[in-house]
Amino acid sequence: xxxxxxxxxxxxNSQQKSIDVTSNNLANVNTGGxxxxxxxxxxxxxxxxxxxxxxxxxxAQVPVGIEVGHGSKVASTQKVFTEGxxxxxxxxxDLLIExxxxxxxxxPDGTVAYTKDGSFKQDSTGRVVTSDxxxxxxxxxxxxxxxxxxxxxxxxxxxxxxxxxxxxxxxxLYRFANPAGLNSQGRNLFAQTVASGDPQTGVPGEQGFGNIxxxxxxxxxxxxxxxxxxxxxxxxxxxxxxxxxKAADEMLQTANQLxx
Length: 260
Prior knowledge:
This protein is an alpha+beta fold. Helices cover 23% and strands 32% of the residues. α1 packs antiparallel against α2.
């Protein structure tokens, strides 16, 4: 009887974490390049009262045993890297990856991070940087006298200065064998982990890497209706587990009130 209290409590705790993840997805519904998370659950250990195949009094084997579970837990929160909606901005430094790949940026501590958010800007020195000032890698510097910036689908960066057009850089993309294993760092950044594997470098449009589209942004891949359904399901599961606790408590109360 007491076991039911703790078992249902693990269910409530799991559903609370599910609501937390859903809330974060909904909070980032308009965050550029954001990738939603999905909660994966797992059952906890079981108490085996009778093993399957145990012989009965007549010597025959019972086909099933008796097992009592002890609840559930959150096994993982998995990033889902499906493509989000596209937004046309006409900004020359807004870049969209059509397909597989990440941009690489340099953080102030000298480490690199990866992002799907292509809303780049130009700092005071002409470097192409993120909204937080992290420079794109390999570094691209736009001349002061540049009057037009053109970025082709293969990542070639050309600028027009006066009557001449010159190439000033090449955007490279990076991908991982297991992108779901990347570590989310906030600010639309991901970091490499042992689970993600080492980054593979390539030119946009080649060897399975996506193409670059200038003047477009990839928005969040969160679907509001889907998240609302997930939230309702988690709330109902939370309610049911709370009712299980109440039922176990009432049964304990009944047993406590027995008289000889």
